[in-house]
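RECORD TYPE: inverse folding
INPUT: structure tokens
STRUCTURE:
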């Protein structure tokens, strides 16, 4: 595969039986969002992904706040008010929330819904009722996410739903598990203790608290995800691009892949083609150093799941073709050296006593005691199926690492020139 930037596609009601078609369209990894559906659906969707030959990502719910279930769509109009109630007490014209949320609400708190597209302020609150003034209009549906930036909430970092998701991971042994609402490296280590050792962990960066401990979280996780939905609900909109850049740089400093997520092709929920702005956003993600791009509702509940994947694959390939000369961004950490060398088709990288020749755009960056061989421009993304192939001679890699030269690879070289095969990242 010539495209280096990987595509993660969420499977859902619109694509329940389309896993093979999603893979054919360009999806490298299928995401099963454990926040939606029951255990039977999660197992069925995961089996479909694995049968289709894709890598599998299980996304843990985490302590995410969601509206309770209700039928239809509620329109919230600016300057009007809306009442929040515990789910067991909510009337037809009120919005249901978990009861334990109310104790942490204060007058003046922001309540953001639907990834921040609907924004309200708390006018009144007591133990089982909150009155909100609507500051930004929009429509809400049952089970959509709610963000409460600045609220003092005593929510557990590892929930019962997370425990159930980890049990499923032990059963299915997915390639990846994503951790929602990570706040510290301890959150990563807790999940690591609950899943198979071969399963890699993606820390989703979606809170201000995570941004405050970004480098620590990056060091603990195997990859980072820029979860722009919830993160954008916590931050002012002008702050989101800077936060995105900070997350990429944090991943670069420790040689970890980074995933761009949320509203990538948002318009393709209803339209057959994305907007020009969305296309530009995805393409600029390539130039900014994203190793993978994730589709959420576009492929899960949108009207054009296959077209969304196909279009994203074309956009990413074109962006890579246009910017191949842009080598991976030089990290700023003093522990990491500048990128050593990269070429479009071939690269020679001196390693210990000799050099290894690999096909494809490569770069090497020094991380601590090791040299990590990784894709140029998008560090880590070339560590997947069919990207890097041994060409001169195959026995170098096959002999030292015991791998199939046709497979993607990540290589670490220690101070003595010894080479070690690492993980396959987003590929099966």
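DESIGNED SEQUENCE:
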């Amino acid at each position: 595969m010539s495209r280096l930037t990987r595509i993660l596609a969420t499977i859902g009601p619109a694509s329940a039986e389309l896993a093979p078609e999603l893979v054919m369209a360009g999806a490298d990894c299928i995401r099963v969002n454990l926040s939606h559906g029951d255990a039977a659906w999660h197992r069925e969707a995961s089996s479909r992904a694995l049968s289709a030959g894709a890598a599998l990502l299980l996304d843990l719910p985490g302590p995410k706040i969601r509206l309770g279930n209700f039928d239809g769509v509620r329109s919230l109009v600016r300057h009007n008010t809306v009442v929040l109630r515990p789910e067991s007490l909510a009337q037809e014209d009120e919005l249901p929330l978990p009861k334990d949320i109310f104790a942490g609400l204060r007058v003046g708190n922001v309540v953001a819904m639907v990834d921040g597209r609907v924004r309200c302020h708390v006018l009144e609150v007591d133990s089982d009722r909150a009155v909100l003034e609507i500051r930004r209009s929009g429509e809400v549906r049952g089970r959509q996410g709610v963000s409460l930036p600045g609220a003092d909430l005593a929510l557990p970092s590892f929930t019962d739903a997370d425990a159930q998701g980890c049990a499923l991971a032990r059963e299915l042994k997915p390639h990846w598990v994503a951790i929602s609402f990570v706040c510290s490296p301890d959150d990563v280590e807790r999940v690591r203790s609950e899943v198979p050792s071969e399963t890699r962990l993606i820390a989703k960066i979606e809170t201000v608290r995570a941004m405050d401990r970004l480098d620590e979280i990056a060091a603990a996780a195997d990859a980072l995800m820029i979860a722009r939905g919830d993160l954008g609900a916590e931050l002012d909109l002008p702050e989101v691009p800077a936060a995105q850049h900070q997350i990429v740089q944090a991943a670069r400093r420790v040689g970890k892949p980074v995933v761009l997520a949320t509203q990538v092709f948002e318009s393709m929920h209803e339209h057959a083609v994305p907007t020009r702005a969305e296309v530009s956003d995805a393409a600029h993600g390539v130039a900014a150093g994203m190793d993978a791009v994730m589709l959420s509702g576009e492929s899960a509940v949108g009207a054009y799941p296959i077209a969304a994947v196909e279009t994203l694959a074309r956009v990413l390939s074109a962006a890579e073709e246009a910017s191949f000369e842009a080598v991976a961004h030089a990290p700023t950490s003093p522990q990491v050296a500048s990128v050593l060398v990269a070429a479009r088709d071939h690269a020679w990288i001196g390693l210990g006593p000799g050099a290894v020749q690999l096909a494809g755009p490569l770069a090497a960056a020094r991380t601590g005691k090791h040299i990590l061989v990784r894709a140029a421009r998008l560090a880590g993304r070339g560590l997947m199926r069919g990207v890097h192939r041994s060409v001169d001679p195959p026995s170098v890699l096959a002999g030292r690492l015991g791998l199939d030269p046709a497979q993607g690879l990540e290589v670490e070289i220690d101070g003595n020139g010894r080479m070690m095969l690492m993980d396959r990242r987003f590929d099966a």
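NOTES: The two ends are 14 Å apart (CA to CA).
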